[in-house]
Amino acid sequence: MSERIEWVKNSMLEEFGKGASIKLLSLEEVNKARDFHRTIPDYRPTPLRSLPNLAKALGVGGIYIKDESYRFGLNAFKALGASYSMAHYLAQQLGQDIRELPYSVLTSAKVKKALGEITFASTTDGNHGRAVAWTARQLQQKAVIYMPKGSSPRRLENIRAEGAEASITDLNYDDAVRMTAAEAEKHGWVIVQDTAWEGYEEIPGWIMQGYGTMAAEALDELKAQGVEKPTHVLVQAGVGALAGTVQGYYASVLGKDRPKTVIVEANKADCHFQSALAGDGSPRVVSGDMNTIMAGLACGEPNILGWNILKDYSEMFVSCPDWVTAKGMRLLGNPLGDDPRVISGESGAVTAGFLWHLLHDQNLQEAKQALQLDETSQVLLFSTEGDTDPEKYRSIVWDGEFPSFAR
Ligand SMILES: Cc1ncc(COP(=O)(O)O)c(C=O)c1O
Prior knowledge:
Elements: E1 6-9, H1 27-38, E2 48-50, H2 52-58, E3 62-67, H3 79-94, H4 103-106, H5 109-115, E4 119-123, H6 127-138, E5 142-147, H7 153-160, E6 165-168, H8 173-187, E7 190-191, H9 202-224, E8 232-236, H10 241-254, E9 260-266, H11 271-278, H12 304-313, E10 316-320, H13 322-333, H14 350-360, H15 365-370, E11 378-383, H16 390-397
Parallel strand pairs: 3-11, 4-5, 4-7, 5-6, 8-9, 8-11, 9-10
Antiparallel strand pairs: 1-10, 2-3
Bound molecules: pyridoxal-5'-phosphate.
């Protein structure tokens, strides 16, 4: 496995208007999700931080990073998807439109009585499962959560603290997803999985629409800071639901003016990068333990809803070793001048680490040029989690675990 950053320009990019349907992530659909989120008492947009000193040092017009560590007190963006998809599922069971079912109604004793006991099941690296457990608790329903081999005990405890039955399996992420689906079938549980496969697309579609709230907030916040739109977006991918959402929503609302989007992965689980290298449009699978510190990105099989969008609309795919995200964590936690500090975890910081090297390293000049990055560029990133494993965070940021690769 290379210790270097690898990149490939997307040869499958489609002319605008000829790509896959992005109706799932239209303004109307994302507004529906956003309106639902607004009914949750703890909802407020997470901050979009501007890093002008970093931008100046790297020679771009602006760098903005959405800090999802503030999301619902859960330290990650994931509850946007879990809450909206589970609410949508309940609305469907009740035969009602989600727009008629604000949070206060869905969490009422009357709705609980009408629906009876439901068990939601999921596989998770930590963040999604915690979000499913958090939502189930508020709906007074049950959650059963399975985690892949090597998952962080701290993240397991966070899920149990939300009242879910949770355990760490001896399977990798993708095999744990299959096992969860089989268990759910056996027990009559409802699977709330943040990835889609042939025949399982409805709930993952709602999850993506839920993530749309984050993408929509970022555009509004950029405008409030005087930036009409980002010219470039760097977004990390595990199964690619998040990246597919960001890409699909911005293509929906900005059309031909959409930003150039770069999909960034952990090199131990770089299924989108491998699919882009193959370049024939069909997704490739990465298997094995996918042993990376970027736990949220340790997924070897692309979400088909996300992949269909990414292959037609995204500009570039990048595969990063662990030291890249470690660099991003340190860089965001120790900002230049009076730039604000962002506490970003292992799956949150890889785009920041990559951006630094993209704009700084001689051997990435060609990638920088391919993306037409210059002093007029406005770059948007998403720090999708805070220090969800605080011991690991300190071991990287304080003790220097995963030092930058000597070039
Ligand atoms: C913090 C964090 N960032 C990014 C991702 C990647 O999202 P996706 O799997 O939709 O690509 C995850 C997924 O679990 C995550 O937990």
